[in-house]
Amino acid sequence: MTIKALNDVEIPQVCRSCSARHDGMCASLTPAELGVLATHTRHTHHRPGEALAIESDEITSYANVTDGVVKLSRVLRDGRQQLVGLQFAPDLMGRLFGTESPITAEAASEVDLCRVPKLVLETLVAGSNELKRRLLDQSLQELDEAREWMVTLGRKTAAERVASLLLLVASRTAGGSEASPVSFELPLGRGDMADFLGLTIETVSRQISKLRNEGLVTIENHRHVTVPDLAALRRRAG
Amino acid sequence: MTIKALNDVEIPQVCRSCSARHDGMCASLTPAELGVLATHTRHTHHRPGEALAIESDEITSYANVTDGVVKLSRVLRDGRQQLVGLQFAPDLMGRLFGTESPITAEAASEVDLCRVPKLVLETLVAGSNELKRRLLDQSLQELDEAREWMVTLGRKTAAERVASLLLLVASRTAGGSEASPVSFELPLGRGDMADFLGLTIETVSRQISKLRNEGLVTIENHRHVTVPDLAALRRRAG
DNA sequence: CGCAGGTTTGAATGTCGTCAAACCAAGTGG
DNA sequence: CCACTTGGTTTGACGACATTCAAACCTGCG
Hints:
Two copies of one chain form a homodimer.
Chain A: H1 3-7, H2 23-26, H3 31-40, E1 42-46, E2 61-67, E3 69-75, E4 81-88, E5 92-93, E6 104-107, E7 111-117, H4 118-126, H5 129-155, H6 158-173, E8 182-185, H7 190-197, H8 201-213, E9 218-220, E10 224-227, H9 230-236
Antiparallel strand pairs in A: 1-7, 2-5, 2-7, 3-4, 3-6, 8-10, 9-10
Chain A binds a DNA duplex (30 and 30 nucleotides) through helix 8.
């Protein structure tokens, strides 16, 4: 597949079913480029726990998360696991020119992806300075998030860690609105929360109970969280 | 300063005193571009503990670390501190188009920098696809390193963390040679090690003593480390 | 109803943090 | 030259917080 072939697509036709969620990769493209993109995307749905095989896979593609949450994790040889990132819609997953590092991607909830073959996206990137810039910005933002989380893992108490995670989920799923009260669904079970926070399941559960007793959150069905005062929770998060 | 003005520099003259350490930013430039770079660089030396004010500073520049080690850190409001990265020569510090995040940079040891004004480097970047690519690669590598360290902070024991740090320093200062025994100087004091590892000074000291008793390292003057068996230390690091 | 998976709670243990003192090397001044 | 300070490191005793092991508890589902 050559650049010429890609540009020969006749009708600029936007990837209809998910274009609204395509900010990560579409916002900087021309109509023609969007047309190219639309003809090569493939939409897939995944169940919770399903491996997505985006990273450290030779035959790799890139994907926009159009719905749901994807967890990125690394494991030690003896089985200890640490989540190193969460991807919410509309994040772009996968890495151009990627140096392989043994990260695995897995659906945390029901997940919809809009996949793009590696070659197509790389060709589009080669022709778009805007897209290059966006890619750099995305990786820098992920770097900032990773470093922020290093502070959480290295210096916060268990209760502060849990509060930090609740804030993170709230900011990414509840539209980033600053207004309290906020209400949202946890995309992660207690086990995944523990793996993200560097704690055990039991400790996570205890600290959630503690935050509940402190009146900082109310919880129904183990998953549905309501935060009456976002600022108070933020204070509790250290 | 315009692109034209930059390109009008007459003699391609390499940044003499540190070009050998310039891999990070020079390797992909044309002779003319190197000339531009050379006429605008400024070399500075810094004492341990000196703030470098690279990030989160409005009047910012970029810099190659030509010698020594720089520590990047974040602090919580109540003063708790976490190192989120170490920059060894010849890393490039600073961030193009940076979204500000409150990271501070400080010399960990005696440090030599080769600074480049923000505008100059951004202009060079605009004209060089190779340089854009290198910048992306660098940020992706830092992302990998940050995530690797998240595993260390979230899932490793105190002794494993210390072993991990010794391996990190060994790999970056001892030329990346895989051959044992390896010998190197620690660029960090116990306090900085603790801040990087998410531990206290006392715990770091105790764990170092433990590794010494286990025969995995020998230490002189609190700073000079010898690792008789790199593979054994790697095993101990989890 | 009863099972299965995930969650919560309890009691005991252990690892790391806190507080405190001793140690050590280098530098200063009498 | 030696006493004294200073900053960093090491070691010890104790306590707190998170883990471990174990049991009880939901919630959804066959």
